[in-house]
Design goal:
Blueprint: H1 14-33, H2 46-52, E1 63-67, H3 73-81, E2 87-92, H4 95-104, E3 109-112, H5 118-123, E4 132-135, H6 144-158, E5 163-169, H7 176-188, E6 189-194, E7 205-213
Helix pairs in contact: 1-4, 2-3, 6-7
């Protein structure tokens, strides 16, 4: 099975398609409301969401933290992998998006706050370690200091046993902002790998999978 065939839209149940339509409406409403906080042009496709969520353990009651979940495209893929004993927290800055997530994903622990304060937000909820951190944050919109701060906190949270994933658009790989972010990833993590490109996404995208934080 190829990456693009992992979640064929034509096989989705009617309820899933309706949910995706509602998510798209919420996404575009947020884009109109706060365009400077939305780095994507459309919600992640199910195929891309599946790739990004692939580091989430499927057993053992893991703790999973999602950054910038937006309308929950990746949230759905994460939830599909989790067993009943798992804990899934989603950090969302936009209050309306947070409200949408609570309604669409009743079992999700929605944390309203800034990912730049990740360790504080998690500590307030008794979380010191996460088995996986999955991000949909618009990294290109952050300056170097903010990128380094968030990645440093992610590294501290996952430790040497966890994994961190995020995504980038294929067409932007040569841009200075993309090169700057790759440098930040390699500065924070000893292992940074790229997933295959998901062509059935708007626009085509790939994932970064990061492990083994470097010692400060």
């Amino acid at each position: 099975m190829t990456t693009d065939d992992a979640y064929p839209a034509e096989r989705e149940p009617g309820a899933a398609r309706a949910g995706r339509r509602g998510a798209r409406r919420a996404f575009f409403a947020a884009m109109l409301r706060k365009p400077a906080q939305i780095g994507a042009v459309a919600p992640s496709s199910p195929s891309l969401a599946g790739v990004i969520a692939s580091v989430v353990p499927t057993a053992g009651g893991p703790v999973v933290v999602e950054l910038g979940p937006g309308t929950g495209a990746v949230t759905t893929a994460i939830d599909a992998r989790l067993d009943p004993g798992a804990r899934h927290l989603a950090v969302e800055l936009d209050p309306r998006m947070a409200g949408f997530l609570r309604q669409a994903h009743p079992g999700l622990e929605v944390v309203e706050g800034d990912a730049a304060k990740l360790q504080t937000l998690l500590a307030e909820r008794g979380v010191e370690h996460a088995d996986a951190v999955v991000s949909g944050l618009p990294w290109a919109l952050f300056d170097d200091t903010t990128q380094s701060s968030i990645l440093g906190q992610v590294a501290a949270v996952i430790g040497d046993s966890g994994a961190f994933t995020t995504f980038a658009y294929r067409h932007g790989m040569a841009l200075s902002a993309a090169r700057r972010f790759r440098h930040a990833l390699h500065t924070a993590f000893a292992e940074v790998t790229l997933t295959p490109t998901v062509w059935r996404n708007l626009p085509p995208a790939f994932g970064y999978v990061c492990r083994h934080p470097r010692t400060p």
